[in-house]
Structure formats: C-alpha cells, structure tokens
Design a protein that fits this description.
- The chain is α/β, with parallel strands linked by helices.
- Helix content is 36%, strand content 20%.
- α2 crosses α5 and α5 (156-171) packs across α14.
- The structure holds zinc ion.
C-alpha cells in the first residue's frame, strides 16, 4: 500500500513538474514593433462622410425582386462625390451591374497585388423594431460619440474606411509599388454570388494571384476575452462552412379523431430531439487551437497553465469554453433547427412533416460528413434526409499564421494600437472572401473597428453603431497597412 501511494506521489509530482515547465516555457507570439505616431486624420469629417453613406438603403432582401437599384446608384454617386481623388486616380470597373472593382496600379508589376474587400449591401431592419432604435436606422445620425445606423459596423464602416485610407494617401502624394484592388460586392448578405463571386471570377480570368485578400470577419475586441485586459485583434484565418439539411417525415394522413400510434409530426419531433442531443463532436483544432496558442501567453498564470497544457486539460478547456453559444460555435459544427412545416387544418393529420436544420461546418468537417452524421443520429427509415444543394458551402481553407500576410497585418495592428494582442480567429459566419479562396491561400478577415460585448447583438440587430474615435483608428489601420504592404 505504501509503495502504491509512493508511486502515485511520484507520478503526480512528475505530472505537476511537466505542467509547470510547459507553462513557464510558453513565449508570447506577439510581434515586437514600435508604435507609429497617430496618422493625422480629421475625425469629425471621417464620421460625417460615414454617416452620409449610412443614409442609403442598400438592402439585400432574401427575395431578389425587392432589390432597389436606385439606392445603390445613389450610394455609388455619393462615393464618387466624397472621394474625388480616388475616382480621379484609380481605375474603376462595374462588374455584373453593381459590383465595384477599383485598381490602384503599382509601379512594380512583379509584385503580387493586394485585394481589399467590403460589401455595399446591408441587412434589412426587422419590421416592427424601427421604433426601438435610439436614432432611426437610416438617418446617419452622429450622437454621443457614435455614428449610428444600419451598416455602421457591417460593413460600410469598412468600405468607406478603405476609401478614406486611399484618399488620404493620394493626398499625401503616395504612389503604390504593389497594385491594390478594392473590390466591393453588393449582395454579401444573401451569399455574394452576384457580386463578390463575379468579381473574383473576373480577377481569376485575368490570372490575378493576390499576395493576400483582406475582408471583414474579425475586429478589435474589448472586454470580450476574459483575463485579457488589452484590446484583442481577432484576425479571421478561416471561416466555417454552411449547409441546410431538409428532414421529411411521411406517415398515414387522415382524420384526427382516430390517429395512429405515430404521426408524421411525432416522428419528425423525435428526429429533431435526437439531433439536438447527438451533436457533432467538439474539438480544439485548427484556428481555435491557434487562438489558444496566441492568447495563452498573454493571460495570468492560471488560464495560461490550462492553455499550455491541452494535452492534459483539453477536455476541461473545451467544456468551459464551449459552455457559451459563442464558444461552442468555435469548437464544433453547430446544429440549428430553423424551419418547421406541417398541417393545413387543426383536425386533419398531415401526411408529411418537414424541418430545415442549419449546420455551420467546422474546418475539418464537410457537408458530406454532416449528412452522414444526420442519417446516423436520426436513424429512422421513415425520414428522408437531403442537403439543400444551393446552401452548401464547405469550410474555407485555413490561412497560415506563419506566412508573411498574417505577420504583416499583425505588425500593422500593433503599430497603430500599441499593446493590442493579435490572435488568429475562426469566423463562424460567412463572408464574401470565400469566393476568393481559389485566388490565394492568404485570406485574412479583420476590420479595425472596436467591438464590445454589447456590440455583437447590434450587428444585424437594433442600434448598430460605431464609435467616432474607434472608426478613425480603423481608418488609421488601413492607412498603415497600405503603407506597409504596398507603398
Ligand atoms: Zn458583412
């Protein structure tokens, strides 16, 4: 017995030593750069020009017949008037109607170009919620230190901010060595197939192989990451895939006075319950593993110890991190039943019941593996399972954090926002950048806007806004990025 206790003690001491050695051995992954002095920009004028852009109702509706070309015409006219130097200097092509492709031609054609993306369209304001906005959603009001309106964060702040940066640099006499494309789609919120996909095809047909593509997807988070007080720049190095699966249950229809033991509705309900119970497995891998590798060294000893010792404590970390919907979404392919349809009359048994379940696919899984999982979890021959083909989009490739474009963006962010912690990130939504994946392995998803815990609900929700100072800093990041990457 004593020998057993002794042996156990030796094992525990060894384990503790290994854990502590690993923890003390982690080194910061943050680039060592000196801060630059803040670029002189007219913060008030920046806010006003963004506010003006938010007045146009460039809305993407699910029903494409509701598309209002006039609003997009007005928005594009506004861009021409607001950014005269950009429009006098860069080449502009219209692609498939409302797509905008600007080219700032570099002096060294041997350098691979840079491509900056943003989208002109916004999501609609949910009917009935207009009155809940502090400032009307399309008023472009500036109040209490914020620019308010639909599109302030997603994604006109980014589109107008990019144009501000180029306008500013032209005014200082800058000329790029590397060619820069600015590519602005107009239907990102409904998949980007008419805008971004066409622009990407055009660039591909011209054999353009960008050094990197930069799109939205991550931001400067404050107060979102526990144990890290500094702003954390979440740079999306991958995005999840997407598939909606249709489940259809068949059963005997008829009068509801003499129902069979199992009905179409009941069979479908069981299947949905099974799917919610039996989710796809959780895993710390790819971009989420990178996130922990970059965040860990910046954290106090306790959490740093957990992050550095995932070989031992990975299960604990996953359980804790996955306890919130946001954390869970970064660890697995998620399951979300979204549509239920059955029945036409309250006393008639429907012969079919149908459900749609939306899955967001973790890199490493695929639409095919999701279908396999659904069939296995449901395990009922009376239910037909199929993927809605038009919804299928597999997860993106993962951009290397060791390649120069990620490193360059990381250095840029820390030059402009001293002390910021830059980390790779998995984007759980979809962006236009996925249409560019065949053009370059280096796709980065980041805008310099500051996002607090309270802002996540504002994107696509009520009271979308961007801080006046935060917006100016996001423009400074674009300016610095262009200086570092292309001038
Ligand atoms: Zn967006």
């Amino acid at each position: 017995m004593r020998r057993l206790v002794l042996a156990l003690g030796v094992v525990l001491v060894g384990l503790a030593a290994a854990v502590i050695t690993r923890t003390l051995g982690v080194r910061s992954r943050q680039a060592a750069v000196a801060p630059v002095s803040p670029e002189p920009v007219d913060t008030t004028a920046l806010a006003q020009r963004l506010a003006g852009a938010l007045k146009f109702k460039t809305i993407s509706y699910q029903d494409s017949t509701q598309f209002e070309g006039r609003e997009f015409d007005g928005f594009q006219r506004y861009l021409r008037e607001s950014f005269p130097k950009v429009h006098a200097t860069l080449k502009l092509e219209r692609v498939n109607g409302y797509g905008l492709l600007y080219e700032w031609i570099g002096s060294d054609t041997g350098l691979a170009p840079a491509v900056l993306l943003a989208h002109q369209d916004v999501v609609p304001v949910e009917p009935g919620t207009e009155g809940k906005w502090t400032e009307p959603p399309f008023s472009g009001a500036i109040a209490a230190g914020y620019v308010w309106g639909r599109g302030a964060l997603d994604d006109k702040g980014s589109l107008v901010g990019i144009l501000e940066a180029v306008e500013h640099l032209i005014a200082t006499g800058a000329k790029p060595r590397r060619t820069v494309y600015l590519a602005f789609g107009f239907d990102e919120e409904v998949g980007g197939r008419r805008g971004a996909a066409h622009i990407a095809d055009l660039l591909a047909s011209r054999k353009v192989h960008p050094a990197f593509v930069l799109d939205e997807g991550g931001a400067l988070a404050t107060g979102l990451i526990p144990s890290v007080a500094a702003p954390v720049a979440l740079v999306g190095i991958a995005e999840k895939g997407y598939v909606t699966v249709e489940l259809t249950a068949q059963a005997e229809g008829g009068h509801s006075s003499m129902p069979p033991k199992e009905t179409a509705v009941g069979i479908l309900a069981v299947a949905l319950t099974r799917l919610e119970h039996d989710q796809m497995p959780r895993a710390i891998r790819g971009p989420t593993a990178d996130l922990f590798d970059f965040l860990g060294p910046e954290m106090p000893f306790g959490p740093r110890l957990v992050m550095a010792n995932r070989w031992l404590l990975g299960g604990l970390l996953a359980a804790q991190f996955g306890a919130t919907p946001q954390g869970n979404a970064m660890l697995r392919t998620t399951t979300a039943p979204t549509v239920l349809q059955a029945g036409v009359k309250e006393n008639v048994l429907p012969s079919t019941a149908r459900a749609l379940v939306n899955f967001r696919i973790l890199p490493g899984d695929s639409a095919g593996s999701v279908l396999e999982h659904v069939r296995r979890a449901v395990d009922d021959a009376r239910i037909s399972v199929r993927a809605l083909q038009e919804t299928v989009s597999n997860p993106s490739a993962v951009t290397s954090v060791n390649a120069e474009p990620f490193q360059l963006l990381a250095r840029t962010i820390r030059q402009v926002i001293p002390g910021a912690v830059v980390t790779p990130w998995l984007v759980v939504g979809a962006t236009d950048s996925r249409h560019y994946s065949a053009l370059t392995p280096n796709v980065l998803r980041f805008v310099g806007a500051t996002i607090g815990p309270d802002d996540l609900r504002r994107v696509h929700g009520t009271d979308e806004r961007i801080g006046v100072q935060a917006y100016a800093n996001s423009v400074r990041i674009y300016i610095q990025l262009l200086k570092n990457a292309v001038l």
